[in-house]
Write a structure and sequence with these properties.
α1 runs parallel beside α8. The chain is an alpha/beta fold. It has 8 helices and 7 strands. Strands 3-2-1-4-5-7-6 form a 7-stranded mixed beta sheet.
Length: 230
């Protein structure tokens, strides 16, 4: 069945809806200039560096895995906890759907803080643990949850990693990180529009949480931090 009709119906009654990547791209673009030294940590296929890296002075994708589908753009294979770059190297660091996989917070952010120069910015996109869309799947056996993620988001099994959600609520993010000041926090709900059943289910949930008082239960968070002066 062609799902276009349900997407058109959803958008007809939710004209304000924007996908999380659209919002993320807009925020990211505001921080990329000709003077930007940008590290995209957990870059996956490195598509963002390939698409937007030319707008920065320097742009480098970093990931612990050398993805078989990685596009041809500047890339460094390294562990997040030990990145072989000098302190204060970057004035922009991005992490998309990575924070939820960090087990030790704030310790795991120490390397990020080291790499970011004072006045530089850290942009995070991560799931919101307060959302039923996020916390209910955590109750499932890992294999079942992994299978569902693969089917819903069209990813491979080797692209699904264990999650801890140590820094994944609005309260924890608002509390902030050592040496980092929170500048902006966005609440975003994502609706899969490529599947009729999922569009209907998630579309109903979107119609509830799009109300401003219920924004704290949207499934995605985008946070922008600034590193404080030394």
């Amino acid at each position: 069945m062609n799902p276009n009709w349900v997407e058109k119906l959803f958008r007809k009654f939710n004209v304000e809806y924007r996908h999380r990547w659209v919002i993320y791209d807009e925020i990211l673009s505001n921080y990329i200039t000709e003077a930007t030294v940008w590290l995209d940590i957990g870059c996956g296929k490195n598509e963002y560096i390939a698409d937007l890296g030319h707008k920065a002075k320097t742009a480098l994708g970093i990931d612990m895995l050398n993805n078989q589908d990685r596009v041809n753009a500047s890339f460094l294979q390294a562990n997040l906890l030990s990145i072989p770059l000098p302190s204060g190297y970057a004035n922009l660091i991005t992490m998309r759907l990575i924070v939820e996989h960090l087990e030790n917070i704030p310790e795991d952010f120490s390397e990020i803080c080291r790499l970011l120069r004072p006045g530089g910015h850290l942009i995070l996109l991560t799931p919101n643990s307060l959302s039923p869309v996020v916390f209910l799947p955590r109750l499932l056996p890992y294999r079942l949850k992994s299978w569902l993620i693969q089917k819903i988001f069209s990813v491979r099994s080797d692209e699904v990693f264990k999650t801890y959600h140590r820094f994944n609520t609005p309260m924890k993010i608002t509390k902030g990180l050592d040496k980092m000041s929170l500048l902006r926090l966005e609440f975003i709900e994502q609706v899969p529009l490529n599947n009729v059943l999922l569009t209907l289910i998630f579309g109903l949930w979107y119609s509830i949480v799009k109300l401003s008082p219920l924004r704290y239960f949207r499934s995605n968070l985008i946070a922008v931090f600034e590193k404080l002066p030394i």
